[in-house]
Specification:
This protein has helices at 15-25, 46-59, 83-102, 124-145, 165-175, 186-192, 197-204, 231-239, 257-275; strands spanning 2-6, 29-32, 62-66, 107-110, 148-151, 180-185, 210-215, 245-248. Helix 3 (83-102) links the parallel strand 3 and strand 4. Helix content is 44%, strand content 14%. It is an alpha/beta fold.
Length: 276
């Protein structure tokens, strides 16, 4: 497995410095949140894309993928009944797939909880169907770009649409595209799944439906900064022979972004060494 750092953790630095910092801490990749590159990152020009690739290459680090896809620009939603807004959202999704491919990324993680809620819609079932239709609409784009588009189950406190791996798997199987998968976020799984996270990993990684993993504590800090224990989770990943990207994605940075990122990778690498 390859460790990546979600770049918003150190977004105070410019992008070349983000790459250098992550590489110096031992990460193999950076997982980019497009909003950290501007509200119109999905429209990024060719020259800027080349600059980002060069900055990563110069630091000896990969751009592993994209996440937090629909934070910007404002007004996006895959579940809205506003047809123009829905179409604009799907267009942004398609453009982000192209951006990911141009940056040599492997995957996109569709979390964006505020942009997929269904409770505020007049017909929640119809809203959920619109969400599924949005994912189905971009599956072929992802296949042609040779990237994997991941539906992220999130905790119920964040969104009311797709909270468990089972719910995500139903959608993935229904759309039936090799480029559309789900993923495991350990913080969300700890809050939403009935089984312990390690058991969730053991069940779902061998299914072939999971294409990515994000590590964070249910308290929204980095792994090793809360009560969740990650040795069983990492052991389950090794047992499943998982070789994909594993991103560190805290939301609360203590003592700060750099300190949090450094502590997380030291904690994870320590566990992995003990399991060898």
């Amino acid at each position: 497995m390859k460790l990546s750092l979600c770049n918003e953790v150190i977004r105070e630095a410019d992008f070349p410095r983000q790459c250098a910092l992550a590489a110096e801490m031992g990460y193999a990749g950076l997982e980019l949140a497009p909003f950290t590159l501007g509200d119109d990152a999905y429209r990024m020009g060719r020259d800027r894309r080349v600059e980002l690739r060069r900055a990563a290459a110069d630091a000896g680090i990969a751009i592993s993928g994209l996440h937090w896809l629909l934070v910007a620009p404002k007004g996006l939603s895959i579940t809205t009944a506003d047809q123009a807004a829905w179409e604009r959202t799907v267009d942004v999704m398609r453009r982000l797939i192209g951006l990911c491919a141009d940056l040599d990324g492997d995957y996109l993680v569709h979390g964006s909880p505020a942009q997929r809620r269904i409770a505020g819609e007049a017909d929640p079932r119809a809203a959920a169907e619109r969400g599924v239709a949005a994912w189905a609409s971009v599956a072929e784009d992802a296949a042609q770009a040779r990237v994997t588009y991941c539906i992220e189950p999130l905790a119920r406190g964040e969104t009311d649409f797709v909270n468990t791996l089972e719910e995500a798997a139903v959608i993935v199987r229904r759309i039936n595209s090799p480029a559309l998968r789900t993923m495991i976020d350990t913080s969300a799984a700890a809050q939403s799944e009935a089984a312990p996270v390690a058991d969730v990993v053991s069940r779902w990684l061998p299914s072939g439906l999971v294409a990515h993993v994000q590590l964070n504590d249910r308290n929204r800090q980095g792994p090793g900064q809360g009560d969740d224990r990650f040795a069983p989770v990492l052991k389950a990943m090794l047992a499943a022979d998982y070789k994909g990207w594993v991103a560190v994605e805290p939301f609360v940075y203590k003592p700060d972004g750099v300190g949090c990122a450094a502590r997380a990778i030291g904690y994870i690498q320590g566990i992995l060494e003990s399991l060898e």
